[in-house]
């Protein structure tokens, strides 16, 4: 398998961590979709990463949620998703919340930094709206986590990987945010996950 992405993308990091936890072998190919000469292609119609190219299949898988769900079926090692029912839905809801936080954060950062906009074209109101979603997501995460050791109980799951990637990206791109002070239970979870080799080996850069 070949994973196509960047080392700074939290969505790509989520897939890389799942690969590591599942002990799956793959090649990692860098593709900066924000480069000036980058363009959509048949292999990447949305112009996004990650993409997973599977030997024997012409079309890659894309969207991190699709990819990690597929990867969890490839090996019984370290199952990250419950097979069905409410437990599975709870894990996927955590993943959706973490990815939604990232979506909002990415939109805010692009509005503030994308070179395709001039200073006069940037909207602080839009940035504030997106950062409001980030704050609301952090509050929802902290409330749902409570005093549990992991997002969905006593074992690590995809919920924790997605959440850890979201929190790590916030530290990487928005170091000025005080989420650690505001939500110490999320900080404890992030610190615990950061000790795992899969997280250590995939730090954003």
Automatic annotation (TrEMBL):
Which residue range or ranges hold the GST C-terminal domain? 84-205
Q: Which UniProt keywords apply?
A: Transferase
UniProt keyword Metal-binding, yes or no: no
Q: Among its keywords, does the record have Transferase?
A: yes
The record's listing under InterPro entries reads: Glutathione-S-Trfase_C-like, Glutathione-S-Trfase_C_sf, Glutathione_S-Trfase, Glutathione_S-Trfase_N, GST_Omega/HSP26, Thioredoxin-like_sf
Q: Which residues form the GST N-terminal domain?
A: 1-79
**GO CC annotation:** cytoplasm
- Say which domain of life the source belongs to: Bacteria
Q: Name one GO molecular function term.
A: transferase activity
The family database entries (Pfam families) matched by this protein are listed as:
GST_C_2, GST_N_3
Which PANTHER family does this chain map to? GLUTATHIONE S-TRANSFERASE OMEGA (PTHR43968:SF6), PTHR43968
Identification of the protein by name? Glutathione S-transferase N-terminal domain-containing protein
Q: What is the lineage of its organism?
A: Bacteria, Pseudomonadati, Pseudomonadota, Betaproteobacteria, Burkholderiales
């Amino acid at each position: 398998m070949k994973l196509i992405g960047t080392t700074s993308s939290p969505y790509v990091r989520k897939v890389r961590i799942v690969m590591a936890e599942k002990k799956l072998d793959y090649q990692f190919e860098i593709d900066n979709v924000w480069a000036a000469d980058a363009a959509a292609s048949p292999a990447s119609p949305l112009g996004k990463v990650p993409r997973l190219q599977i030997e024997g299949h012409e079309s890659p898988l894309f969207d991190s949620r699709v990819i990690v769900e597929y990867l969890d079926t490839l090996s019984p090692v370290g199952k990250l998703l419950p097979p069905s029912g409410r437990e599975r839905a709870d894990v996927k809801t955590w993943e959706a919340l973490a990815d939604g936080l990232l979506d909002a954060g990415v939109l805010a950062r692009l509005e503030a930094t994308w070179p395709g906009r001039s200073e006069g074209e940037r909207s602080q109101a839009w940035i504030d709206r997106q950062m409001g979603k980030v704050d609301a997501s952090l509050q929802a995460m902290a409330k749902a986590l409570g005093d549990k050791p992991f997002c969905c109980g006593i074992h690590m799951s995809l919920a924790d990987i997605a959440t850890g990637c979201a929190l790590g990206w916030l530290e990487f791109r928005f170091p000025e945010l005080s989420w650690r002070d505001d939500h110490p239970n999320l900080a404890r979870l992030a610190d615990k996950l950061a000790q795992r080799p899969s997280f250590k080996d995939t730090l954003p850069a």
